[in-house]
Amino acid sequence: MPSREDILNAKILVVDDSPDNIELMEEILREEGYTSVSSTMLPEQVCPLHRQHNYDIILLDLQMPGLNGFQVMKGLKEIEKGGYLPVLALTAQPSFKIAALEAGARDFISKPFDLLEVHKRIHNMLEVRLLYKELAQYSKTQQELALHDALTGLPNRRLLEDRIETTLQHASRNHHKAAIMYLDLDGFKAINDTYGHAYGDEVLKIVAQRLLATSRKEDTVARLGGDEFMVVLGEVNSLADAQGPAAKLVEAVSEPFFINDLTLRLSTSIGISIYPDDAESVESLISIADYALYEAKRGGKNRFCATSASPAQMVPPPKLELVPRRR
Ligand SMILES: Nc1nc2c(ncn2[C@@H]2O[C@H](COP(=O)(O)OP(=O)(O)OP(=O)(O)O)[C@@H](O)[C@H]2O)c(=O)[nH]1
C-alpha cells in the first residue's frame, strides 16, 4: 500500500476556468499537506502538461469555455493507453456526475465543495492510483526478470530466441546474412572446483561485461546458462565478416582476470553458424553453431570454428593459470 508520505507527494493538477476556485482548491490541498500541486485555467494545456508531468490525479472542472472537461478526457485517453484516467471530475451539475464517470473519470466531487468529501475522495483516488503504478512497475520488473539472466543481467535463452528470430527476419528482408556465435568457456569447471561457485560467478559476470564491451550495440549478447553465452550479429555479408568479431571475443576472454587478489587466465571456444548459408531456422542455426563449438573444443579450444571453414588457429592452447596477484 502507498504510504501517507507517498500520497502527500503525489503530483496533482487542478483545472478550472475560475481563479477563485483554483485558489480555494490549492489552499485546501496545501493545508492538508500535499506538496506537489499545480494548476491551469487553460483546458487545452491539460494534455500537454500531463504528457510532460504524468500527474497522479487531475482535478478537472467539467464546465469550461472552449474545451470542456469531457473533451479534455477524450484527449487524456490517448495518452493513458493503459486505460486508467487519473481524473477526479469537479461539477456543480448533478446530471454531469454519471456522464463524467461514463467518460472515464474515476470519481467526482460536487460543487460547492464539502471539505471532508474533497479530502476523502482525493485520498482514496490517490491510494488507488499509486497502487496501480506500483503494480505496473512490479509487472514490468517481473517481465524483465523473466527474460534476463539473474547473474549477468544478459538476455536469457527465451529472449535470445526472440532476438535471433527478429535478426533473421531483418536479414531476410534486407538480403543480408546473420551470424550466430556459440561460446563455451574452457576449463570453467576447474575454477569452480578450485575457488568455489561464488568466485566462478564473478568470472561469469566479468566475461559478460567483456562480451558486451567487445560487441556492437546492435548485436545481441546472451547467456544460455552455465558457462555458455551467445552473440548474434546482424547485417553480415559472409562468414568472413563474423570471423573478425569472433577473434575479438576470443581475445577479450583471454585477457587476465583480477579477482580477490588472484590473477586468472581463461579462454573460450566459439562455434559459428551463418544464416541462411547453414540453416534458416533458429533451432537449426543454434545446433549447427553448437556442432562447430564442439569442433573448436576438439581442435584444441581457445579458438573459433565454423562448420563451413576449418578451425582457425588463434592463440596457443589454453592453460589455466592461477597466480597470486602482487600488491
Ligand atoms: N559459478 C557458476 N558455475 C556454474 C553456473 N552454472 C553452471 N556452472 C558450472 O559451470 C561448469 C561448466 O563446466 P563445463 O562447461 O561442463 O566444463 P568445462 O570445465 O568448462 O569444460 P570444457 O567446456 O570442455 O572446457 C560446471 O561445473 C557447472 O557446475 C553458475 O551459474 N555459476
Description:
The protein is of the alpha/beta class and 327 residues long. It folds into 2 domains: 143 residues, 3-Layer(aba) Sandwich (Rossmann fold), CATH 3.40.50.2300; 168 residues, Alpha-Beta Plaits, CATH 3.30.70.270. Helix content is 48%, strand content 21%. It has 11 helices and 13 strands. The strands form 3 sheets. It has a 5-stranded parallel sheet with strand order 2-1-3-4-5, sandwiched between helices. The chain has a 5-stranded mixed sheet with strand order 7-8-6-11-12, sandwiched between helices. β7 and β8 form a beta hairpin. The chain is elongated and about 85 Å long. 35% of the residues are buried. Bound molecules: guanosine-5'-triphosphate. The site of guanosine-5'-triphosphate has 16 residues, from β6, α8 and α9. Keywords: Nucleotidyltransferase, Phosphoprotein, Transferase.
Instruction: Pick out the low-confidence regions.
Output: 309-327
Query: Roughly what is the average pLDDT, rounded to an integer?
Result: 91
Tell me the strand order in the biggest sheet. 2-1-3-4-5
Give the total of beta strands.
Answer: 13
Protein name: Diguanylate cyclase
EC number: 2.7.7.65
Keywords: Nucleotidyltransferase, Phosphoprotein, Transferase
InterPro entries: CheY-like_superfamily (IPR011006), DGC-Regulatory_Protein (IPR052163), GGDEF_dom (IPR000160), Nucleotide_cyclase (IPR029787), Rev_trsase/Diguanyl_cyclase (IPR043128), Sig_transdc_resp-reg_receiver (IPR001789)
